[in-house]
Write a structure and sequence with these properties.
It contains one helix and 24 strands. It is mainly beta and 388 residues long. A hairpin with a 6-residue loop joins strand 22 and strand 23.
Length: 388
């Protein structure tokens, strides 16, 4: 670990999420000149956010209820959308992420990731899309584009984010379903299944001709990168077009990655994590393996970690934040801010650390640049950070 990164991690771990890390007044959990506004309240475990172009409404998913909601960003009014697929909300499953087709409303497709089962107790992460009519609050012509293989009788580590990248291609993350056989035969190292991967599709769900493993035998054609544990954040860098990802480790070992075509990100053969409840490393240190892609930022075993969720790059009116990466922290209950210079990442002060909020989704309003954050709880708000 570079000393700069080690000191940043050590400081954060020692500091925890107490407001005293930023000063004696809990109000310093936001810097001067920044205010937090409540957009809406009383959502049930919101998981994904998407903005409708030229429309005051925000699309929100609720993980545990399977509800898709239109939220008026000014009034906070909520409207249920009809036509949403049935989901399996056991464990960490349910209705997960949401994305809008980049040519909306000419292409009125709304994309969802969610966990669903066979009826026999097995489930997996799905990608689907339907035609959104926000005025009628309906989702019609819904079709499943992909089911991650295999279906399993377990309810954790589904992933899953969905974003549109360069060229209008769709990227979707799938978790490793928490398999514990740490070694080279782990499912995340096996290209014959979709677990522990980033998948890439055309908007209609077909496979791009230049996907990295499309011509190789016994591999899944949709795989774009692999060796991931439980990737719960995806974001496109606004200047480079690179795909960034946030990923949960085991005991610590959490990561920020830049996703490369065909890249192996190491889980579990190379990671900075330890096994839960121990100081036993899971695999080799990633910087000792030249056959794998190392993270651009990480929290090594014993640091306290940073269990990450959704993420977004900032392009808004707060000049000090321009180009920064914001990542939701779950167990640490704060919003992480990171300065980015190429592949050089520096962790800044935690935000909203005085509220005890699990930060599940983070998105930037493409019209105003304001930063929206969804809180993960049974009666949760969505808030936005704006110039005071």
């Amino acid at each position: 670990m570079k000393r700069r990164r080690y000191l940043a991690v050590a400081s954060t771990a020692a500091c925890g999420v107490a407001a005293g890390c930023l000063g004696s007044d809990a109000e310093t959990a936001l810097p001067d000149g920044v205010a937090v506004e409540t957009v809406t309240e009383d959502l049930s475990n919101p998981w994904g956010l998407a903005f409708l172009p030229d429309d005051p409404r925000l699309v929100v998913t609720e993980r545990d209820t399977g509800r898709l909601v239109l939220v008026d960003r000014e009034s906070g009014d909520q409207t249920d959308v009809e036509g949403v697929p049935a989901v399996d909300a056991a464990g960490q499953g349910g209705l997960l992420d949401v994305a809008i087709h980049p040519d909306y409303p000419a292409e009125p497709w709304l994309y969802l990731t969610y966990s669903a089962g066979t009826g026999g107790g097995e489930s997996t992460t799905h990608l689907g899309r339907g035609r959104l009519d926000p005025d009628a609050a309906t989702l019609s012509d819904f079709e499943v584009l992909h089911r991650a293989e295999p279906f399993l009788d377990r309810t954790n580590h589904y992933g899953s984010r969905v974003v549109f990248g360069v060229g209008g291609l769709v990227y979707m993350s799938v978790g490793d379903r928490q398999f514990k056989d740490f070694g080279p035969n782990h499912v995340a190292q096996d290209l014959g299944n979709d677990l522990g991967t980033i998948l890439r599709f055309e908007p209609d769900g077909s496979i791009p001709d230049d996907n990295p493993f499309i011509d190789e035998p016994d591999t899944r054609d949709a795989i774009y990168s692999y060796g991931h544990r439980n990737p719960q954040g995806l974001a496109i860098h606004p200047e480079t077009g690179a795909l960034w990802e946030s990923e949960h480790g085991e005991r610590d070992g959490d990561e920020l990655n830049i996703v490369r075509r065909g890249g192996n990100y190491g889980w579990p053969v190379a990671t900075y994590a330890c096994e839960y409840g121990t100081d036993q490393p899971v695999g080799d240190p990633p910087d000792e393996r030249d056959d794998l892609v190392p993270p651009v930022y990480y929290w090594e075993c014993g640091s306290g970690g940073f269990p990450p969720a959704g993420m977004a790059f900032y392009d808004g009116p707060i000049s000090d934040w321009q180009g920064d990466l914001f990542v939701g922290n779950l167990a640490g209950t704060y919003l992480g801010r990171f300065s980015v210079d190429g592949t050089d990442v520096t962790e800044r002060e935690p935000l909203l650390a005085d509220r005890g909020w699990r930060m599940r989704a983070v998105e930037t309003d493409p019209e105003t640049g304001h930063l929206y954050v969804a809180v993960d709880s049974g009666s949760a708000p969505i808030v936005r950070l704006v110039p005071e």
